[in-house]
Design goal:
Layout lengths: L1 H11 L2 H23 L4 H16 L4 H19 L3 E4 L2 E4 L6 H11 L2 E4 L6 H4 L1 H8 L5 E5 L2 H10 L1 H6 L4 E3 L6 H8 L3 E5 H13 L14 E5 L1 H7 L4 E7 L7 H31 L5 H17 L4 H6 L3 H15 L4 H9 L3 E3 L6 E3 L1 H7 L11 H9 L6 H33 L7 E4 L2 E5 L6 E2 L8 H9 L7 E8 H5 L4 E6 L6 H8 L2 E4 L10
Helix pairs in contact: 2-4, 2-5, 3-4, 4-7, 5-7, 13-14, 13-20, 13-21, 14-16, 19-20, 20-21
């Protein structure tokens, strides 16, 4: 199979070479047209925008006018050379004219593909050509980037070309009000981050009461910068809009002292286990039994406090890490349930494999409360059925007994949920890393940018657990009004494209999930024409 692939590549070239070969005629035509446009007056060049719009309205397609539109953008860039542009408060001199490699990237984006281009190839300029072309349809086109600063910078910097050619450019920023956002979406081209676009959609769908309150216009064409990060790494990240519930039922105030004490006990236990394991691994010739016992202790710490600093330091040793991972898989396998229970029995609580939940062990339940039944949820359907079939009760007594049972069940469920969230708050979330406390409020820190996200709250009681942990005012729980994943949001667009320096390795995922083809555009001297 490998030999056949090698032979085919030798005859027909690689996919990247074939992709570039297909668009070379377009590149030549664009460059030829741009040379012709150099003889136009400034007014005549700018008039091309209205001409293109009229032709599209009269039945031509964006594919029909692509070469002419790209040539207009290239010529506009040439004419702008030497002019100064104010970008985020700094004066910059425009000195960019698209090279052939950038034109090829622009064609790939217009065709709804992912352009893989190396760092330094000028992907920011590449996007101007397909954005200009598709914005001529009158529909809002969007450039999605990874943070507010880049969105603002690129909208001001690349916006110079669009405004020169008569198009309007907007930029969505985190602190904007609805009316400001509506104005930005009413522009021909809008820059912003994936989360801002997604949250605006959720507000439109879940909170707007009439058409006039909507801020977005359509989901026509979007180019995503760092597309592998946004569409693959963050694909399953849910965007959630929530609001406070009418009545608060949390028990964080009541539970915090016991859970804080439990956390301290577990921390001391894990520190001792790590210390004992470390001593064994430091020995010159430890026996197999000693190594196995030490590895199990580290597995216990991983189950009990996966972010324990001493554990993380010890796991920097590759050999130890491999031992722990192998033992962890062995202990958690279906054939070793008894061993799993034995390993967990030494802990006060254990974190789930995916670290989303925490459960008290019997040792932990005894430490929190002497009443073992306080943490046992009865079977809801079985208990209700038992009440319904109890012949000693009349209908009124059955209703009262079911109501009392349901209230007790809800109270226990809430207690168990709150305990789990408090344990997550103590074990998995570190102050000044995952969140900060400012002016008596817990503020989330964006894990991708390191920026504080005012107004955002963790869901399902986790934020209240963090507030209890830090001793600040516990605000009311929230209820979800609307939610969508990054993946499902961007699949709504009529046409999607992306840019990155690393996409080929995830080409199958892009095609399977988003029907996006990857076009690798490597820099070549023959693509240097300007």
């Amino acid at each position: 199979m490998a030999l056949a692939t090698t032979i085919l590549k030798a005859i027909f070239g690689s996919k990247a070479e074939r992709d570039v070969k297909k668009v070379r005629p377009y590149v030549k035509k664009i460059n030829d047209l741009e040379v012709q446009y150099q003889s136009l007056t400034e007014e005549q060049l700018k008039a091309k925008t209205d001409e293109f719009k009229a032709r599209l309205q009269n039945g031509e397609t964006t594919d029909d006018i692509m070469c002419e539109a790209f040539a207009v953008v290239k010529n506009a860039c040439r004419r702008l050379c030497g002019t100064t542009v104010n970008v985020c408060g700094h004066e910059l001199t425009w000195n960019m004219i698209p090279f052939d490699v950038q034109i090829i990237g622009g064609i790939a984006l217009h065709q709804g593909k992912i352009a893989e281009m190396a760092t330094g190839e000028g992907k920011t300029l590449v996007a101007t050509m397909p954005l200009y072309l598709n914005a001529l349809t009158g529909k809002n086109c969007q450039l999605v980037t990874v943070n507010d600063y880049l969105a603002r910078r690129d909208s001001e910097w690349m916006g110079t070309v669009f405004r020169y050619l008569g198009l309007t450019v907007g930029c969505i920023q985190n602190q904007m009000y609805s009316e400001e956002r509506r104005q930005q979406y009413n522009c021909d081209i809008t820059y912003g981050t994936n989360s801002e676009f997604g949250f605006d959609y959720l507000r439109d769908m879940g909170m707007a009461s009439c058409k006039e309150e909507l801020v977005q216009r359509n989901h026509f064409f979007a180019i995503i910068d760092e597309v592998d990060s946004i569409l693959i790494d963050e694909a399953r990240t849910p965007l959630i809009i929530s609001g406070p519930v009418a009545v608060s039922t949390h028990q964080f105030d009541e539970l915090k002292p016991a859970i804080a004490d439990l956390f301290n006990k577990q921390n001391l236990l894990c520190s001792r286990l790590v210390s004992e394991a470390s001593a064994v691994f430091s020995k010159e010739n430890p026996s197999d039994d000693e190594l196995e016992d030490a590895t199990i202790k580290l597995v216990q710490v991983k189950m009990g406090m996966p972010n324990h600093r001493q554990l993380m330091h010890l796991l920097e040793d590759v050999e130890i890490m491999k031992r722990v991972e192998k033992m962890d898989m062995y202990v958690r396998s279906d054939n070793n349930r008894g061993m799993l229970q034995e390993v967990e029995s030494a802990l006060y609580f254990s974190m789930s494999e995916k670290q989303h939940e925490a459960d008290l062990t019997e040792k932990g339940r005894n430490a929190v409360s002497g009443d073992k039944n306080a943490f046992v949820l009865p079977d809801l359907l079985e208990s209700i059925h038992a009440i319904d079939t109890d012949k000693t009760l009349d209908e009124k007594e059955k209703i009262e007994k079911k109501k009392a049972f349901q209230e007790e069940f809800a109270l226990k469920s809430e207690r168990l949920h709150d305990i789990s969230q408090l344990l997550r708050a103590y074990c998995l979330f570190e102050k000044d890393v995952h969140y900060v406390v400012q002016e008596g409020k817990v503020m989330i820190v964006d894990e991708h940018t390191g920026r504080i996200l005012p107004g955002r709250r963790f869901s399902e009681g986790l934020h209240q657990a963090l507030e209890a942990k830090e001793g600040v005012t516990i605000e009311r729980e929230t209820q979800t009004f609307a939610t969508i994943t990054i993946q499902n949001y961007f699949r709504m667009y009529e046409k999607l494209a992306g840019m990155t320096g690393t996409a080929e390795t995830e080409a199958s995922e892009f095609h399977q999930i988003y029907k996006l083809d990857v076009m690798v555009i490597s820099h070549q001297p023959s693509l240097q024409t300007c």
